[in-house]
Design brief:
The complex is a heterodimer of chains A (365) and B (230).
Chain A (H helix, E strand, L loop, with lengths): L1 H9 L1 H38 L4 E4 L14 H8 L5 E13 L5 E9 L4 H5 L12 E4 L1 H5 L7 E4 L5 E7 L4 E2 L2 E7 H9 L11 E5 L6 H8 L2 E4 H4 L6 H33 L1 H9 L4 H34 L10 H19 L3 H6 L11
Chain B lengths: L3 E12 L2 E13 L4 E5 L6 H8 L7 E6 L2 E2 L5 H11 E4 L11 H11 L5 H13 L15 H13 L5 E5 L7 H18 L2 E6 L10 E6 L2 E4 L7
Parallel strand pairs in B: 3-8, 3-9, 6-7, 7-8
Antiparallel strand pairs in B: 1-2, 1-4, 4-5, 9-10
Helix pairs in contact in B: 3-4, 3-5, 4-5, 5-6
C-alpha cells in the first residue's frame, strides 16, 4: 500500500470526487434503511410487541386479520396442546369520534382482559377495568386523546372510555387501541348471537417443538410464525419490497460508479502499472495496491456517508415521517455497499492483469 | 561471470500475416564494470533487445543468462523475480511515479524487492547524495528538471544493488551537456559498483563515455567505431 497511500494523498481531489458520490449513496442508503425500518415499525410494531410465537388464521385468509375468522373451539384446541398458551385476538381498523367531534382512526386489538396478551401491554391491567374501558397507545395520546375521554365508534355508536395509555404501538400505520375482546366482537360483528366466540386469529405462545401443525390441520386453520404474519399488515409487503428494490438500485449504482471510476483510473495509470511490473512487482502485488486503494476510498466514504446519514436520521426521528434507525441495519447497509462497490471494481481488474510491463520501455510496444 | 550473456538470440513476432524479426541471431556479453552502448536507428531492434535482456520478453530461440542464471524459459512470475533481484532499469524520460518524491521512488523500488526499514532509507539517502540530489529528495517528478528526473531514475535503478543495469535512451529529452552528465554518472556507477550496463541510444555524442559500442541494424548486431556515422 506504499504507493497507493501516497497516490491517495497526491490525487486527493480525484478520489474526493468519487468518494463524495459514494458518500451520497451511503447517506441515501442509511436514510432509506431508516425509512424502511420506520415503515416496518409503523406497520407491525403492535403485533411485534405481543408475546406470541405463532398465529393461527382461518382458512384461505393468507395471514390477513381482516380476512380471517376463528371460533372458541379453535382456541380451545390449541390451548389443549401441552405448554401452549392460546387466546383469541381480534384485529380491525375502525373510525371513531371524540366528544368534541374530532375524528380518530385506530386499529382495535381485542384482547382477553387479564390474559397473557393483555398482561404484556403497559397498563393492560386497566383493560375492562370499567364498562367498555380501553387502553390507548402513546401515539393517540400524543394526538390529543386523554384518559377519561370517550371514543364513540362510527356506525355502531359503541362508547369506549379511555382508562390508560400504553406505549407506542401501531398496526397498518394506525395507532392501536387495546379493547376487551367482547367489545371488539360487538364492534366487528355487531350484536349477532353467533358472534359471541369469534375473533380474527388465535394468538399462540408455544415452546420450541410444540406440535401446532396437527392441531391446525384438525381445526382447518393455518398456523404461521409471528414474523410471517407481518406480511398480512396492510401495505407491508408492498412497502418492504419497494424499499428493498430502491436500496438494491442504490447498491447497483454504487457498484457501477466505482466500476467506471476504477476502469478509467486504471486506464490512466496504465503506464505506472507497467512500470510497477517492470520493476519486478508481481501482478498480485499491483492488484493489492490498486484494490486496497479503492477499498480505502470506498470504506472511508461509506463510513462518512453513513455517519452523516445517521445524524440526519436522528433529526428526522420522532417527527411525522415514519423513521427508525438502528445500528444493525445501518451497519448491514454500509457493509453491503462496500461489498457491492468492490464487486463493481472487479470489472476493471482484468485491465490491470493485462498490462504488459514492456510498456515501460518507450520503444518496445 | 558475465552480468549479461545473450547467445544466438532470435525474436520474432507476427504482424498480421507477416512475421517480423526483431532480433536476428544476436550474441552479446556485458561484463561486470563494463558500460556497453548499443546504437542504431529506430526500428533496429534496440528496445526489443532490452526487453529480452530485461526479462520482459522471452526469446523465440537462443538463450539469456543474467549473472550466471539462465532465464531463457522463465515463467512470468520468475521473470518478475529476476527483475527484482538482478536488474536495474533506467527508462527513457525517467518514467517515475508522479505521486512519489525522489526519496520515495527509491524506497518503493526497494519495497518491491521485499526490502524496507531504516537501512533502505539510509541507502536511498546515500544514493541521492551520490547522484547530487540530496537537497531535492522531497520533490516529486513534476518539481524536478529532466536531468534531475533521470538522476532519480538512475538512483532508483541502483537501490537494489543489481548485477545488470539496462538503460533505455537515457538522454532523449536532455540537452548535450545534461546528456553527457547523465552518461558520465552511469559510467561512474558502472565502474564503481562493478555492474554490467547495457545502454541503448541513438545519441552518438555520448558514445566516447562508454567502454564499448555495438551497432544494431535490422535486428542484427556488430562492433562499430563510436565516431563513425550510421
Amino acid at each position: 500500500m506504499y504507493l497507493a497511500l501516497r497516490e491517495l494523498k497526491f490525487a486527493w481531489g480525484r478520489f474526493s470526487l468519487v468518494g463524495s458520490v459514494i458518500g451520497l449513496v451511503a447517506i441515501l442508503t442509511v436514510m432509506l434503511s431508516g425509512l424502511a425500518n420506520g415503515l416496518v415499525n409503523d406497520g407491525i410494531s403492535g403485533l411485534r410487541a405481543l408475546p406470541v410465537t405463532n398465529l393461527a388464521f382461518g382458512p384461505n385468509s393468507h395471514s390477513t386479520f381482516s380476512r380471517s375468522t376463528i371460533d372458541a373451539g379453535t382456541v380451545a384446541a390449541f390451548a389443549a396442546v401441552g405448554g401452549v398458551e392460546a387466546e383469541p385476538l381480534g384485529v380491525g381498523i375502525f373510525n371513531a369520534k371524540l366528544a368534541d367531534g374530532t375524528a380518530v382512526e385506530m386499529t382495535m386489538f381485542g384482547l382477553v382482559p387479564n390474559g397473557f396478551l393483555a398482561s404484556s401491554v403497559a397498563n393492560g391491567d386497566r383493560l375492562g377495568s370499567g364498562p367498555d374501558s380501553v387502553v390507548i397507545s402513546q401515539g393517540l395520546a400524543d394526538s390529543g386523546v386523554a384518559v377519561g375521554d370517550h371514543l364513540i365508534l362510527d356506525r355502531s355508536g359503541l362508547d369506549m372510555a379511555v382508562a390508560a395509555v400504553a406505549s407506542e404501538a401501531t398496526y397498518g400505520h394506525v395507532d392501536i387501541v387495546y379493547v376487551p375482546i367482547d367489545l371488539w366482537r360487538r364492534a366487528a360483528y355487531g350484536s349477532s348471537t353467533t358472534s359471541g366466540d369469534l375473533a380474527s386469529a388465535v394468538a399462540l405462545n408455544a415452546p420450541p417443538g410444540a406440535d401446532l401443525a396437527t392441531t391446525a390441520a384438525r381445526a382447518g386453520v393455518g398456523v404461521v410464525t409471528k414474523a410471517e404474519a407481518y406480511s398480512g399488515s396492510p401495505g407491508y409487503a408492498a412497502e418492504t419490497s419497494t424499499m428493498t428494490l430502491i436500496r438494491g438500485f442504490l447498491y447497483v449504482i454504487a457498484a457501477m460508479i466505482l466500476g467506471a471510476f476504477f476502469t478509467v483510473w486504471t486506464i490512466q495509470r496504465r503506464q505506472e502499472i507497467g512500470l510497477q511490473k517492470a520493476l519486478g512487482a508481481s501482478t498480485w502485488a499491483v492488484l493489492k495496491e490498486s484494490l486496497g486503494q479503492v477499498f480505502l476510498v470506498l470504506s472511508a466514504a461509506t463510513v462518512a456517508g453513513a455517519a452523516i446519514g445517521y445524524g440526519l436520521g436522528l433529526l428526522v426521528t420522532g417527527g411525522t415521517v415514519p423513521f427508525s434507525l438502528q445500528p444493525g441495519p445501518v451497519l448491514a447497509a454500509s457493509a453491503t455497499l462496500i461489498v457491492t462497490g468492490m464487486a463493481g471494481v472487479l470489472v476493471g481488474v482484468r485491465r490491470i492483469t493485462r498490462v504488459d510491463p514492456i510498456i515501460a520501455l518507450g520503444g518496445a510496444e | 561471470m558475465s552480468s549479461l550473456l545473450l547467445t544466438d538470440l532470435y525474436l520474432s513476432y507476427g504482424d498480421g500475416d507477416e512475421e517480423v524479426v526483431a532480433i536476428d541471431h544476436v550474441s552479446l556479453a556485458a561484463e561486470p564494470g563494463e558500460l556497453v552502448a548499443v546504437v542504431g536507428v529506430s526500428g533496429a531492434g534496440k528496445s526489443s533487445l532490452l526487453a529480452v535482456a530485461g526479462a520482459l520478453r522471452s526469446p523465440t530461440s537462443g538463450s539469456v543468462s543474467i549473472n550466471g542464471t539462465d532465464i531463457t524459459n522463465a515463467t512470468s512470475s520468475r521473470q518478475a523475480q529476476i527483475r527484482r533481484d538482478h536488474i536495474g532499469f533506467v527508462f527513457q524520460s525517467s518514467n517515475l511515479f508522479e505521486a512519489l518524491t525522489a526519496r520515495e521512488q527509491l524506497i518503493y523500488a526497494a519495497r518491491i524487492a521485499g526490502r524496507k526499514g531504516k537501512d533502505v532509507e539510509a541507502a536511498a539517502d546515500e544514493l541521492l547524495q551520490e547522484v547530487g540530489l540530496a537537497a531535492k529528495s522531497g520533490r516529486r517528478p513534476g518539481e524536478l528538471s529532466g536531468g534531475e528526473r533521470q538522476r532519480v531514475g538512475i538512483a532508483r535503478a541502483l537501490i537494489n544493488e543489481p548485477s545488470l543495469l539496462l538503460v533505455d535512451e537515457p538522454t532523449s529529452s536532455l540537452d548535450h551537456n545534461r546528456a553527457r552528465e547523465i552518461v558520465g554518472l552511469l559510467r561512474e556507477e558502472t565502474h564503481r559498483r562493478r555492474i554490467g550496463t547495457v545502454m541503448v541510444t541513438h545519441d552518438r555524442s555520448i558514445l566516447d563515455l562508454t567502454d564499448r559500442v555495438l551497432t544494431m541494424w535490422d535486428g542484427r548486431i556488430g562492433p562499430a567505431n563510436p565516431a563513425s556515422e550510421e
